[in-house]
């Protein structure tokens, strides 16, 4: 027989009476607090899980972005050919992600022609003879026309996408190679870093300003997470980079030209971002790929760079800097 079981059949009520009422209330309150800490939840899960998730996402995004940046920096300052090599690889990956998305919408582009052109454009940018990139463009169009004539199943939309994909992902990316080629020394690497870095700074400041202060949607039907406040934050960051470039005095860049480059590239880079977002929304995908944790695909990471780098190259060229 257990020691704590009473001898008689009646259960004593003394034990319960010996516990003061105040102590009972305190124990009940303590139990409630412990339970609330363990089980209290929000629509996203236990309290604090949303904050932890955001922190982990930010850490993943920052880590993959840092690796990406280090590889780019190493190639930029190693010389023109390493820059060409990394841009070629990135252009090829971006083009393949673009083709993957359009195939999800039922289109059937010619991947072989498009990906070959994606490799050829950056390589042509370092060729010693003028007009190499224009030659690649002409050959691409001719090959697309021959393919269209020789393939009854293809339609004009497939031909258009086959030609557009390398132009969008590779020809525009080749502007980074052209900027780097303008000066083979480390100064050219620094100028190319400014061209790419201003887009990175713009993306980063837009992300943090939008996360902290974003209230007004910039394009809710295309990219619901982008805000007007984030747009202005990114624009200020982009202009600040080019004002710093002007302050260094290493190139023939006036302050008005620096502000013009920063403002134009900041605005057009957002257009490039929204352009790619519209493509993804049209085919029903969140990311173009998954090669970069926290960012999605490489095209997701480079969409701003494609248009922004092109604008920077054009203004630098027309302004007599390169």
UniProtKB/TrEMBL annotation:
Query: Any one cellular component term from GO for this entry?
Result: plasma membrane
User: What are the subcellular locations of this protein?
Assistant: Cell membrane
Chief place of localization: membrane
User: Its catalytic activity?
Assistant: a 1,2-diacyl-sn-glycero-3-phosphate + CTP + H(+) = a CDP-1,2-diacyl-sn-glycerol + diphosphate
Q: Fetch the Pfam families from UniProt.
A: CTP_transf_1 (PF01148)
Pathway entry: Lipid metabolism; Phospholipid metabolism; CDP-diacylglycerol biosynthesis; CDP-diacylglycerol from sn-glycerol 3-phosphate: step 3/3
Top-level taxon of origin? Bacteria
Quick one: where's region Disordered?
1-53
Q: How does it sit in the membrane?
A: Multi-pass membrane protein
The GO biological-process annotations, alphabetized, read as: CDP-diacylglycerol biosynthetic process
Q: Which family does it belong to?
A: Belongs to the CDS family.
Put simply, this protein is called Phosphatidate cytidylyltransferase
What species is this protein from? Parafannyhessea umbonata
